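Supplementary Methods, section 5.1.

A reviewer requested that the exact input to the structure prediction be made available. We therefore reproduce it here, unchanged from the version used in the analyses.
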Amino acid sequence: MNKLLELAHGAQRIAILGHVRPDGDCVGACLAVWNYLAGQYPDREIQVYLETPPVKFRYLKRFDSISQDADSGKQYDLCICLDSSDAARLGAFAVYLEGAARSICIDHHITNRGYAQENLVDPQASATCELLCDYLEQDRIDRDVAACIYTGILHDTNVFKNSNTTAKTMEAAGRMMAKGIDFSRIIDESFYRKTYVQNQILGRALMESILFLHGKCIFSAIRMKDMDFYNVTAADLEGIVDQLRVTEGVECAIFLHEVENHVYKVSMRSNQYVDVSKVAAFFGGGGHIRAAGCTMSGSMYDVVNNLSSHIEKQIEEHEG
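The structure derived from this sequence is encoded token-by-token as follows.
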């Protein structure tokens, strides 16, 4: 029995946490563990706590039972932290980690600081959900759990296109497909399908994008007034930075969206050699070599200029 199952076996009350602004890997991992443990231990009190997740993941079992309420007075025997590189990324729900008798973190971010009592971290894995394939007993993974795991792998590999996709990634996805999931529907519903306003804001971001550093970088920004005009939330902006990344000749893409006056959430993607995790880490963020982010203050151009100096240095080093 591995460490995750060993700890869960001895706990009556279990809290499952993921990072703020949960994405597909985060939601998939949290619900995969919840559905798996609920199937093995139906008598246990288990709860997932996340900020409001994107509704496109509603097809996952127990999605509608995710709690957005943080209660500092509630304590658990075990806190399971998934896909979160540090305790600060747990947001308001970090109180459950602080009050838990035992804790374990399962993550694949290279910037993970080992903040739980037990830490199962593998930066070589494409997704936290890929790691779960090793930590859950295969013959007890049912179709509902498999759909969660497949969703997480799908989103952190950008539909198996990112450089973090390995033969092991494909094997893990294949094992989940063998459980009978409707993988085509999962791809369409959670990745490609967009609402009318999501297509509108995507078009706005692409139309106003700007190339710089001799065409090797591109950025676009959406301000709060733009989001109000189109009546969109941060969840509706998902995928914009990836569309910027595939612009011909571009090595690095930057997408900003304003979260408060002169404060921007930064998403970065690269194609071949720029390590955006190093850039993000310098500004207090983190992520992966080819996909990372942070939050920065200043005008839109201040933010881009500060980021570009670090990106330009890596480009110059690569070009010799």
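The two ends are 50 Å apart (CA to CA). These observations are discussed further in the main text.
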